Batch of 3 targets.
Target 1
Amino acid sequence: MTSDETLVTQAQNTWCPGCGNFAIQHAMKFVIQELEAEGMARDQIVLVSGIGCHAKIADYFQLNSFYSLHGRTIPVATGIKMANPDLKVICFAGDGDLYAEGLDHLIHAAKRNIDITVICHNNRVYGLTTGQYTPTSPYGYRGKSTPNGLHEYPLNVIELLLGAGATFVSRAYTRRLPHLKRIFREAIMHPGFAHVDVLQICASFFNMTTWYDERIYETSESNAGLFEFACRTAQQWNYNDDSKIPIGIFFQTKKPVLPEKKVKKEVDRSLLVRTILDRAT
Amino acid sequence: MDRSDICLTLFVVTSIKRSGAEISQLEAEQLTEYSVLIGGKAGDGIAQAGQLIASIFSELGFFVYQYVDYPSLIRGGHNFCIIRAAEKPVYTHRTGVDLILALDQKTVDLHTQNLTTKGTVIYDSPRVKAEGQALAIDEILTQYKGRPIMGNTAMVAGFCGCTGIPWTLVESVFRKKLLKETDLNLLIAREAYSRITRCFDLHQVEGSSPRPLLSGNEWIGLGLLAGGIDAYVAYPMTPSSGVLHFLASIADEAGIDVVHPESEIAVILMAQGFAYAGKKAAVGTSGGGFCLMTEGLSLAGMAEIPIVIVLSQRGGPSTGLPTYTAQSDLLFACHAGQGEFSRFIAAPATPDEAFRWAAEAVQLAWKLQIPTFILSDKTFSEGIYTSETRPEVRATTPIPAPAYPYKRYADTPDGVSPILIPPCRGEVVKVNSYMHDYSGITTEDPEMTVAMVQKRLRKAEKLASMTDQPGAVVCGGSPNAKTAILCWGSPRGVCSEVADELGLKLISPVVLSPFPAGEFRKAIQGVEKVLLVEDSSTGQLDKVLAREGYRTDELILRYDGRPFAVEELLERVRRVVS
């Protein structure tokens, strides 16, 4: 078997034809093979997925995985990384999953700069539950739960992440594959919390292919170290208006990383308990 | 005035006051057990003062129990502790107190009625008006330039003077327990000590040496360490936070991770992340936080991830009575989480049991890959106890090795699929919240579903056989009595004393899930009348027993947030047995 074949399981793929998830899986497979060729062992990788169409990726990759709950990739990934800092922990989450149900975890993970990678399959709609609005759906979106049109503006998640203190904030698009691969690679290699908001279409409920193709452009990353510059780039598109959509690394910086590389001493528990009891006597 | 002048002044004052004390020594009382109540405003350091008194009793060889009563606020309000010391193990308080130490007027107004006939009051004069011995705390603090919080030091020293505890012993305990501004505290203590006349004659208990003194939460934390936890994850919530604080304070020394994340939802999932990567993790919370954990609990059931949950109950529903006790989450703990999966629940009632069962909870979680619970409550978690024995860490049995190629949910006779910790060269470890196949990949296949459900049911059977063992149900009182007091968790202490006093049998299951049917059957044999004592309004153990085919005859329930004192329960039980 080729390395490519051994990276996928026998599980039947049930994503809709044309789904953006295929591109995400393909790009990630490419990056993993590249990293493997450079000496990283694939069994060092742990994938954590939420619940939604995106999450099936855990079944499809023949890699260590934790198929978690809706909205709960990040706390699981945080625990895994803290338990073993040598593991490469990558979260795959959906936009409803990550930006609605699990938003608090995202903010706090960015704040504590936990060394994990979070990839959001952002199709701006709930696919598996058949087409309801998510936090990034545009104003006026008509879904089964909002038949008269959505009366909320979408969340600009890039601004949100910048505000939360994320040290790697990026956006990519599933139909710009070489760019997507590069962003994935940079995100995985970034020491600290790395976030990739991947714009993708939902072939069944929110097909935006032409709309995205006309507006998306690769932004210059030469000022990615400047926070104020990043904020301005983030504001070019608010997930709602008809404007140009920048993709790329918006912001990248260094901050103290969790977990700290601290060697834990092996402690004899019998002795420890005796010491504590003596102290309490 | 330099230091030597202070010493000289102290000496003079001491000698004058001592002569007074010596005169009254002839009338001083020697008791076999003592109850001391110290009260004041929140912020007066009442709990700390109580612990100092408890330490002094322990130093004298007494068994100690300290009840802590405080409202949910930081400043003001009325806090009090009752420290009960006896020559035999004590796990509950009495209403009657021999000595009241009043740092506020409420202490006198609320508790003087409970003073025993030989009892006395020491009060902070002139702030508090009372009959007894006045202690001019402000005057002492001004004299030594002490801070207001040191008033509690003065009061503890007043207690020492009143009970005739040798100064050398007082000083040694203060030096050991008061690590900040020790010398200043000692000056204040010495002054207060010398101003109080002796009323009791407290002696070293013969043949008895000091015992470790820790809160219920600390005993649980110590048991978790003994069981081998590598991580403790918790969001602060009274009355469980003591476990978090204790383990955080020793995390570096113990080589464990202690994490306080953004919510209880994050807590239980983070802990399962630790477990996936091979680190034994426990979490702690109270009812409201546990509500948030139920989704993650069910995940642990489906994905078969070992996890230990310390659930310390308080008055509910909802925010309820944050700092007061209840036993109203038994059925919740038994049934929380969607779907069907087994869990282990133990409710320890003593420090020795807390240590033993917390360690056991860690081991069982990993042997069977299930969620396990230590069910506590405010009374046990925040009560302070000396243990009966000096607990030791037990050797643990190694976990069986997996077969290769590895399948996370491989079918086995006992339903337990050996765990493999990633990274493992050439193998993948897949866990899944969906129904899954043997390798951890999502399935909706009916036959595979049945196989997986039955695999988990076999684990439940194994759990029951492992836990329905001696020790799962504790008995006491009169073994052949026809009437039994039935209880679980913290009320055991008070029930045990009442059963002894009235010649009744005591039956107290420690293991509550799976219900130890065999051990309970043995315990209940020959009993004709059962009185259930529980801190709830519905009698939840009664409902657990009904499912097992038993019925209780009387429910003695309490739901005002306060635990029964011995006298209170005696009265309630007498009403139904006479």
Note: Chain B has 20 helices and 21 strands.
Target 2
Amino acid sequence: MNLEQALKWLEIYDQEVEKLAKNIEVGAKELGLEIANFSLVIGAGLIADSIRKHNEIIKRAKIRGYITSYEVAQLYQNKEIMKYGYGITLGGIIANFLINAIGSIISYFLNSSKRKKISEFISNEIRKYDQEIKPLLNEIREILYNQINNISPIVFKLGNSSDLDNFKNFERAFLNLEKLIENYLKTFYIENIYESLKKFNHSNVEESLKSTIQNLSYIKYRFYSNVIQEWLEFIDNLISRTDYQHPFYEKGIKNAILYILLNEEAILPKKVKVRSLENIKNKMFLDSIKDIFLTKTISYFNKIGYKPPFLKKLKFTIYSLYLLVISIFLILTYLLFRLFV
Amino acid sequence: MNVEKDINKYSEEIIKLQSYTKISENALKIVPYLNQIFNGLYDVLNNYILLKGYSIKVEEIRIEREYSLGQYQSTINYLISLNNLTAHILKAISEMPESDENKKIFTEQFLKFSELISQLTNKILEKL
């Protein structure tokens, strides 16, 4: 599991523990209330019953003019029952407060242990980054930088060759370069995630985790934007260096662009769910990346005179949608006309 | 005197019976409360087990990340050697004349190692 996935898991953990702690708190409150209700019903019943019996005995004794020893014993017994009634009622109310307090304490401890766990996890990741991951990333970046510098002239050279084997290698080198550039930029992407973790506010774990996750998607889109920009620059460079009349060139560049297009389409999210201002910012950013990429790709295709089949389909879909909207509008206008005029 | 004694005895019995009836009535009232209490306790226990599961998962993620980091350290040395190897191959290619037949083989070898480097780095970066 990588850091991005781990952070998303921490977010789930944070939400679930908060939900469970709240459940326990609310459950304890309800349990306390149930016990209080129950003791009130029993206690009040006993008190009311003994008061009624007490009044009856006194009334009977008053009419008679004297009181029997048995009635005295009954009065005494009633008094005792009344005491139990008060005891049960009071006990229920005290139990309610106690259970409520225990529920709140458990919920507080659960939340604080969750905060501690998340905070420890993030501190551990930051420590690991400073001690081990940062040098590792620098090492990988250097290797990838060397590879990109070494392979780029080979791609240009192979692209200009008229030999069939060289052309096959051109495609192979092109695809490998794509991966190398992506990995090179990924090292910055990972570094950015760790750097954003360093700003984590440990005194407000929940909010900090939320903003870190939101920031994560911004870092991700920036990474994709960089990948696409690098690629567009590379294709620009390739187009300016290679001969258009070359027999393998058209196929090579077409395949490469289609490969990138399909690859980026698979990586970039189709839609960003807009729930906050941060999401709107991300959505606008993502839309701008997609716009730049699509406009550039179409211009490349126009340059080499290639019409991809999915664009024809897209055009057809857009036209049919226009037609549908216009027909619905016309039908509605007609219906409104018939209704009111 | 006996009659009074009997009346007292019977009324004592009646009071006893009345108290039994009261107890059974109250016991019936307790049942829904007990049901609610047990449901509440079950929910609390269920939530606690779920909570334990999540805590264990967080610990598992931490251990897994620690473990994979140890593995990357050994892979990086291999990557450095591969990088040096590609640099040597590239140097050999640049020194070869255009007509040399081996140039194609060397280029293919270079591409093969370069692909291996990108695959390995990709694997490491995916886990970081």
Note: Helices of chain A lie at 3-64, 69-159, 164-198, 205-241, 249-267, 277-303, 309-340.
Target 3
Amino acid sequence: MSDASGKVICDAGPLIHLDELDSVHLLNDFAEILVPVQVWNEVAFHRPNVFDNPTVTFLKTEVTISPRARFQALIRSLALDTGEQAALTMMQENPDAIFLTDDAAARLAAISLGYQVHGSIGILIRAIRRQQKNKEEVLDILRSIPDRSTLHIRPALLNEVIARVESHTID
Amino acid sequence: MTTKELQTQVVQTEVPVGLLNQAQDLIEAGWFRNLDELFLDALRRFLESHRGELMEEFIRQDVEWGLVGNE
């Protein structure tokens, strides 16, 4: 595996979904994993053991949600929850970080603010490129999503994703 | 009758106890009149911001980033 990548700021979805798939350790490829306290509390409520993973260091971070008018208008128009608001506030202070979310509205907000944003599927597939897992291991995880995870993905689209990964040639 | 009545249908679903407790806390605090109103508002907001084509586009972007992204 090559050197650790940059910083990520987490929304609740990827932490929950990756944990459901026994894959939260894939995040240890990032140099810093920042979790706003609002997200931390939400995840701990649904998946109390996520933050006990000994292979991953999560940085629980206090965040005061940005009062800026443009930001407030955006989060209200997209009805973002407090965790998403906190994570996006952290992105304002860390614009080079990657925002991790599986929520379409939060992702839309992040894109409109100019941030790089990805979700659980991206982290899983990235594990091949980063040599954290081989292609077959990742394909097995992708195939198990409907049974093991609350990550919502249309079955036909998941099959398409699997086919795309299967056909990908690793350099 | 000049006003078209809102058609509704009763659905039954299972809700995790933790989420239900959170919902009931909001009702007891006076934010919603009852569970029906809360669930309707939550569902409406979710559907407004989660368009299928948008979610699909994001997944496709993630696949390409995962496979060939440049970090």
Note: The radius of gyration of chain B is 19 Å.
